[in-house]
C-alpha cells in the first residue's frame, strides 16, 4: 500500500498573521514539501492543476519534472489532471516526457476540476463536462497504446496517421487514476478501462464514499478485469496533528474557520464528526484512517491533504515529520494484517512492465 500527500496549491492568507505568501514562495514551498515527503519515508507526492487564482500549480509536469530531478524514490503524480479542458494529445506528450525523465516514477489522476470558469477559458462548455472526460480519455488511452492513430470525435479536430512523441517508457503507458467526488460516470469510466479509482474522501460522509467505491469495484469485475476486491482504489483524507489533541484543535481552528473550501460553514467539531477530517493526536489519525477500510475495503493508495488553508510551511513540515515517524509506519503494519493475498499492490512502472513482459512471453 502506498502512502503520500496531495496538494491543491492554494495561496491563502495565514489567518493568524494576516500574511499571504507570494506565488514564488508557495511554489517553492510545494517543492520543499515534496522533498520532505521523501525524507520521512512517504511514497507519493501529488499536485493539483488549476488555472485561476488563488492557486499556483498551472503546469504540473513542470513541477514534477523538477522534483523528479531532486528525488530518488518518490512516486510523482497529480491530484487532478484536467481531462476536460486539456488537449489529450498534449497530456499524452507531456506525461510521457515526465515518465522518461522520472525513470517511470510517476502516474496521474484524471479529473474534471472544481472551477467552472476554466471551461470557457479553454474554449469548452461546462455542460459537456462528462462527455469531454469520456471522449478525451478514450483518445488519450489510444495515443499511449497505438503508434499510429486515426481518430475523429466531437470536441477536437480529427487525427490522421498521428504518432504521439515521445512514446511511453518501455512501451508501458503511465498508470491512470480517475478521481471523482460525486460522479458515478467517472467511477464507471475507471472500471471500463481497468484503471484506478480515487475518491477525494474529504468533504463527504463515509456512506457516500462507500457507494462510489462499491460501484467502481462491481463494474470493474463486470468488465472482466478481476474480482471486485482486486480493483485499484485510492482515498484522500485531511489531517492536522499535534502530540496533544487539544493543542491540535486549538491551533487548527482559526485556519479551519476561514478556509476557502469549508470556512464559515459547519463547526470544526461537526466537520470532523461527519467527514474524514481528523484533527487531533497521531493515534487519532491512525484510528480514523484504519476505519476507512471498513467502508472502502482493502485499497492501494492513501493520500493526505496537509498544506492548505494558509498553514505556514514550517507547520506543514512538522506535520510531515509526525506523519512519517508516528503514523504511516503503524498504518503500513495494520493495513497489511489480514490483507487477502489476491489483493494487488499499488501499480508501479516496474509492476506494469513485468506484467507486460509476462503477457508477451505467453503469446510467444
UniProtKB/TrEMBL annotation:
Keywords: Monooxygenase, Oxidoreductase
Taxonomy, superkingdom: Bacteria
Ranges for domain Luciferase-like: 1-295
Lineage: Bacteria, Bacillati, Actinomycetota, Actinomycetes, Kitasatosporales
Molecular function, one GO term: monooxygenase activity
This protein's name: Oxidoreductase
Positions of region (Disordered): 339-364
GO CC aspect terms: cytosol
Species of the source: Streptomyces pilosus
InterPro entries: Bact_Lucif_Oxidored (IPR050766), LLM_FMN-dep_put (IPR023934), Luciferase-like_dom (IPR011251), Luciferase-like_sf (IPR036661)
Amino acid at each position: 500500500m502506498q502512502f503520500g500527500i496531495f496538494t491543491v496549491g492554494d495561496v491563502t492568507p495565514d489567518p493568524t498573521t494576516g500574511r499571504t505568501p507570494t506565488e514564488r514562495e508557495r511554489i517553492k514551498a510545494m517543492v520543499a514539501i515534496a522533498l520532505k515527503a521523501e525524507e520521512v519515508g512517504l511514497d507519493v507526492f501529488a499536485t493539483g492543476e488549476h488555472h485561476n487564482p488563488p492557486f499556483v500549480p498551472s503546469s504540473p509536469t513542470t513541477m514534477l519534472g523538477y522534483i523528479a530531478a531532486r528525488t530518488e524514490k518518490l512516486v510523482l503524480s497529480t491530484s487532478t489532471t484536467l481531462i476536460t479542458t486539456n488537449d489529450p494529445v498534449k497530456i499524452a506528450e507531456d506525461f510521457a516526457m515526465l515518465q522518461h525523465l522520472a525513470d517511470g516514477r510517476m502516474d496521474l489522476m484524471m479529473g474534471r476540476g472544481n472551477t467552472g470558469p476554466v471551461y470557457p477559458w479553454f474554449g469548452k462548455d461546462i455542460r459537456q463536462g462528462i462527455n469531454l472526460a469520456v471522449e478525451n480519455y478514450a483518445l488519450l488511452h489510444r495515443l499511449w497504446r497505438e503508434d499510429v492513430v486515426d481518430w475523429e470525435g466531437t470536441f477536437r479536430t480529427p487525427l490522421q496517421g498521428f504518432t504521439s512523441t515521445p512514446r511511453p517508457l518501455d512501451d508501458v503507458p503511465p498508470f491512470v487514476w480517475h478521481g471523482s467526488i460525486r460522479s458515478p460516470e467517472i467511477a464507471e469510466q475507471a472500471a471500463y478501462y481497468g484503471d484506478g479509482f480515487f475518491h477525494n474522501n474529504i468533504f463527504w460522509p463515509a456512506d457516500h464514499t462507500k457507494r462510489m467505491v462499491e460501484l467502481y469495484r462491481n463494474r470493474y469485475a463486470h468488465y472482466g478485469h478481476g474480482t471486485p476486491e482486486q480493483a485499484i482504489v485510492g482515498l484522500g483524507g485531511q489531517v492536522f496533528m499535534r502530540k496533544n489533541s487539544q493543542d491540535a484543535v486549538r491551533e487548527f481552528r482559526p485556519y479551519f474557520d476561514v478556509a476557502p473550501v469549508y470556512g464559515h460553514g459547519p463547526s470544526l467539531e461537526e466537520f470532523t464528526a461527519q467527514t474524514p477530517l481528523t484533527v487531533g493526536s497521531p493515534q487519532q489519525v491512525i484510528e480514523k484512517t484504519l476505519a476507512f477500510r471498513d467502508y472502502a475495503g482493502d485499497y492501494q493508495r492513501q493520500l493526505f491533504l496537509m498544506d492548505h488553508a494558509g498553514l505556514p510551511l514550517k507547520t506543514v513540515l512538522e506535520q510531515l515529520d509526525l506523519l512519517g515517524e508516528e503514523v504511516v509506519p503503524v498504518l503500513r503494519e495494520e493495513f497489511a494484517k489480514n490483507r487477502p493475498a489476491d489483493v494487488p499492490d499499488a501499480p508501479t512502472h516496474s509492476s506494469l512492465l513485468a506484467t507486460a513482459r509476462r503477457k508477451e512471453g505467453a503469446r510467444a
